[in-house]
Specification:
Blueprint (H helix, E strand, L loop, with lengths): L1 E6 L5 H12 L4 E4 L13 E6 L5 H8 L4 E6 L2 H11 L5 H4 L2 H16 L17 H19 L5 E4 H5 L4 H7 L25 H4 L2 H18 L19 H14 L23 H12 L3 E7 L4 H5 L4 E7 L10 H11 L7 H7 L5 E6 L7 H8 L4 E10 L22 H11 L4 E4 L5 E5 L11 E2 L2 H6 L1 H5 L1 E2 L1 H8 L4 H4 L12 E2 L6 E9 L10 E7 L5 E6 L9 E5 L6 E10 L5 E4 L10 E2 L1 E6 L2 E6 L5 E2 L5 H6 L5 E8 L2 H19 L1
Parallel strand pairs: 1-3, 1-4, 2-3, 4-5, 6-7, 6-8, 8-9, 10-13
Antiparallel strand pairs: 9-11, 10-11, 12-14, 15-16, 15-18, 17-25, 19-20, 19-23, 19-25, 21-24, 22-23
Helix pairs in contact: 3-6, 5-11, 6-10, 16-17
Protein name: Sulfotransferase family protein
Organism: Massilia violaceinigra
């Protein structure tokens, strides 16, 4: 008898072909994934296995006509997706040769195994959109369902779930012989086996995964005859043997197969709360260094950055910091001071200083991790290629924000990418074949220094809604897997091979900036006057947003006798939420008592109640607050201490109207 078994990858075809061959008895010829085009008429005693995605459906149908029995093996697409997630990485040499990729997957699997609900499937780099793996699973199952429908009656449809459960009576009747589920498999192919069970997806999917994947997989399930049941396991349970241990074994075996040295992957006991479990910009940089032989690396990063620098492996590394005095976050003051203590202040460079210091040095790769404010981002991105060697690569970080909330113009606590995505989209607009984005770590934009157009205007703007609607066109989005494939040849031209022409992109004139005022903190010692030399100034944006200002006393400051806080330099209305003095180690030293403001030393300021909230109204060009600080607090004030201010300045018109209303109210009360 000749028997053909067809199924998609990771659906149990290996186990079934050996079970059928043993049921046939004797010594049947076994064809294991041999290409159809190379096979002649099968011998009378043959069991053949063909992977559905490896051949054209019409060729499979024609080839099947040469067999006495034909079995089409199908599997729940959700379980199929999980199996591919664990196994598919082992089929590609390019992935086996990338430690960052393998380390990230191993760490995610360890976290997933320890606490299944804490890691969504989309966090795995194989499934981050655009996901070639997800597209393959969907396309294969859709074609498989269409094939089953087109050839109903000529093929026996066997479900993977019935096979692993030992429900093989119908199959045995179709073949005319008893098929047993415990077939002996050639040890060469034992590595493909994992759980040998069904329904594993219920432990791997989270509720967010169900919401995301259900619209994609429901039609495939219906076409393959699976019920619309998406209930999850309670509680979910994933064993090490079926997750990270399985993955480690595959990596070990496949790297040995490809002639690569052993790779030590992180172990679960090395995982900590700060352990990174995703592809990062350092992984992208290291891949470029390895594949293209880059030798000289420059990093231009925020003052609280630098973590990437330590993770980059390159012969020559240079680090410079972006001045960002107006954007300091209060909670990270201690970390900023530690950065300065470690690196000093000599590497804090403005753009002109950076260009002057490193002119003619010729870097192969530059990372620019900006302070996300335009037009500064545009201007720096246009200027940095001057420091690159011809053919070098500029990387701009944070070019693909995942949600609008982190794209605010004003710096906000936590994740924040500001308007960098706009600046990169504009650069790519003028250099479409020389710029694209690797879709990891909020988007790593790569720019090839190969005839760049850099004299374009930077005033153009776009909304997040425009960007999100045509994200792939604005960014040239590429998955990390695609990035690995395109860098495998070691030729930069292959990485920047011209993609299909992007859809027309829309930009418009940038809106006028919100009005700004200045906020100042003065200090003085005994027998001194307040002066501009002993003051810190920060801008405030009059757009109604909550703003956190952090005035940190510079080195050398000591013997402070008095403080003076000027909330604005003009007439303004604002909600003042808090004023706090913080020690260099983050301890609270003093807090303003908002409820007792009437008895405090406020000058050219009055307070009023609006809708139950207290507003501060400045009444002149030089409003001031002289806090009465306890002697114990004054004695501790010095370098590294800071005044943290949380306020919501109102737009000028709002301030003027509120001021007029307050004046009318005061007049009415006097009458």
């Amino acid at each position: 008898m000749r028997c053909l078994i067809v199924g998609a990858g990771k659906t149990g075809t290996t186990a079934l072909v050996y079970a059928v061959a043993q049921a046939m008895g004797g010594e049947p010829v076994i064809h294991f994934e041999d290409p159809i085009a190379g096979l002649q008429t099968p011998a009378p005693h043959t069991a053949a296995k063909v992977l559905f995605e490896d051949e054209r459906p019409d060729d499979i149908a024609a080839f099947g006509a040469k067999f006495d029995r034909r079995i089409l093996l199908v599997r729940d697409p959700r379980d199929n997706l999980i199996s591919h997630l664990l196994y598919a990485v082992a089929t590609h040499r390019v992935q086996m040769d990338d430690p960052g990729w393998l380390r990230t997957i191993a760490q995610l699997l360890q976290r997933k195994q320890k606490e299944p609900a804490s890691v969504d499937l989309q966090e795995f780099p194989q499934l981050r959109p655009p996901s070639a793996l997800l597209n393959l699973v969907c396309a294969t199952n859709q074609a498989l369902a269409a094939f089953a429908q087109a050839h109903a009656g000529n093929w026996f449809i066997l479900r993977y779930e019935d096979m692993v459960a030992g429900r093989l009576d119908a199959l045995s009747a179709y073949l005319g012989m008893t098929v047993r589920p415990d077939a002996k498999i050639d040890p060469t192919y034992q590595r493909v086996a994992r759980t040998k069970g069904a329904g594993d997806w219920r432990h791997w999917f989270t509720r967010d995964d169900v919401a995301h994947y259900r619209p994609l997989l429901d039609p495939l399930m219906a076409a393959l005859g699976y019920a619309d049941d998406w209930s999850l396991a309670t509680p979910p349970l994933i064993t090490p043997e079926h997750s990270w241990v399985y993955f480690e074994r595959l990596v070990r075996e496949r790297r040995q197969f490809f002639g690569m040295p052993p790779l030590a992957l992180p172990t679960p006991d090395q995982l900590g709360p700060e352990t990174r479990a995703r592809i990062g910009k350092a992984d992208v940089i290291n891949r470029l260094v390895r594949q293209f032989g880059f030798k000289r690396y420059l990093e231009y990063n925020k003052l609280d950055g630098g973590k990437c620098f330590s993770g980059v492996v390159c012969d020559s590394k240079t680090l410079a910091f972006i001045p960002e005095h107006a954007y300091l976050d209060g909670p990270v003051t201690e970390r900023l001071l530690q950065t300065v203590e470690k690196f000093g202040t000599g590497d804090i460079l403005t753009l002109p200083q950076l260009l002057e210091r490193h002119a003619g040095q010729g870097f192969d790769i530059i990372l620019y991790d900006p302070v996300h404010v335009r037009p500064e981002v545009d201007l720096v991105a246009r200027a940095l290629p001057a420091l690159l060697n011809p053919g070098g690569i500029l990387i701009v970080h944070d070019c693909n924000p995942e949600k609008e909330a982190i794209t605010s113009v004003q710096r906000c606590p936590g994740a924040w990418v500001g308007e960098t995505y706009k600046a990169f989209a504009l650069l790519r607009h003028y250099n479409p074949g020389l710029a694209f984005t690797v879709d990891e770590d909020f988007g790593c934009g790569l720019v090839w220094n190969n005839g760049l157009v850099l004299d374009y205007p930077v005033e153009a703007d776009l909304t997040y809604q425009q960007f999100d609607a045509q994200r792939a066109s604005y960014t040239g989005l590429m998955s990390y897997h695609q990035f690995l494939q395109k860098t495998a040849s070691g030729k930069i031209a292959d990485l920047f091979a011209a993609p299909a022409a992007p859809a027309p992109l829309r930009f418009q004139s940038a809106p006028p900036p919100a009005p700004r005022m200045a906020c100042q903190l003065f200090w003085r010692g005994p027998d001194e006057d307040f002066c501009e030399e002993l003051a810190l100034t920060l801008p405030i944006v009059l757009d109604g947003s909550v703003q956190v200002l952090h005035f940190t006393f510079p080195a050398g400051v000591a013997g402070i006798e008095r403080l003076r806080f000027d909330p604005a330099d003009g007439i303004l209305a604002l909600r003042l939420a808090s004023l706090e003095l913080i020690s260099p180690k983050g301890a609270l030293m003093w807090r303003w008592d908002a409820d007792a403001h009437a008895g405090q030393d406020w000058r050219a300021v009055r307070f009023c109640e609006v809708d139950g909230a207290t507003l501060l109204l400045t009444t002149g060009s030089d409003p001031q607050f002289h806090p009465a600080l306890p002697a114990s607090v004054r004695a501790r004030l010095g370098a590294g201490c800071s005044l943290s201010v949380v306020m919501t300045p109102q737009p000028p018109l709002v301030g003027a109207l509120l001021g007029a209303l307050e004046a009318s109210r005061q007049e009415a009360s006097h009458e």
